[in-house]
Amino acid sequence: MKKQADIKLITHNDLDGLGCAVVAFSYYPDISISHVYHNIADEHIYKVKSDIDTLFITDMSPQSSKAVKYLNRLARQGVKIFAFDHHKSGEELFSQVTLQEGSVFKEGNKCGTLLLWEFLYGEKTDPYYELVNYINEYDCGLNREYNSMGWKLNSIFYEMGREAAFEKFFQLSTFEFPTEFQDILTNVEKDRENVVRRARESNQTSMIGEYNIMFLFGETFKKHEFYLTEKMKTKVDLFAFVRDDRVSFRRGENNLDCCDIAKLFKGGGHPFASGATLPNYLNTNLATKNYILRKISTFLS
Description:
The protein is α/β, with parallel strands linked by helices. It has 13 helices and ten strands. It has helices at residues 15-27, 41-46, 65-76, 91-94, 112-120, 129-139, 149-160, 162-170, 179-202, 219-222, 225-231, 258-263, 285-300; strands at residues 7-12, 32-36, 54-58, 80-84, 205-208, 211-217, 238-243, 246-251, 268-269, 273-277.
């Protein structure tokens, strides 16, 4: 017989995904949680067995029709499936899944954390209200100032790592900014001007028509992406942050749709921020840069 404790969460491996995990764990202490990147979501979906009671998928979506069929089979076998996602790239596939009432999978100004919190809690007096809204402001682009509370939380997430950040964020059911967080941000402050300098010195920019594309390679740039988008002196229309086999696109001065760009690489995301997986045969920065430029040249020209 199934038990209510047999609940699983598959969520994204970023600040919004972490927020989903905190909210879910506070409500279901026995929940099993998997943090994954979008490109391997299907692998984790296939690992879900029909002996669980409930499956939550937050801040991400199935990536193929095969995964949709697998989810529908789980639903026929009695698994209750909920989805809380705000990426327009996931709408089509989620619309084909048998989901429980209350699921939300439409692009909008509510991130996965806020959608899940509203479903499980929903009142201003409930736990994590402030934390959830700070995450939402950041993840949905409502406040992307580099010194906003959402930006600070995202910086802390990257600096601490997911597991340590989860433990600390879980303690913030009533939000009070911990002193140790400020110590972490002090170190971030020391590094970020050097990051801007290194970005300028790298001079990895290319023009496609009227659009200036900046390429930045390595994790040190990724942690400071929104500071960079504000502080670069030259006009940049699109940022491409590359780390290993992943590329993250961020909107610059022009209102380019980053989600549409990521779809060229079978990725997805938001209009202002998106990501995709790159082929593993791209073994140099130059090869990666040229590959990305070829893909997006038709879209931008």
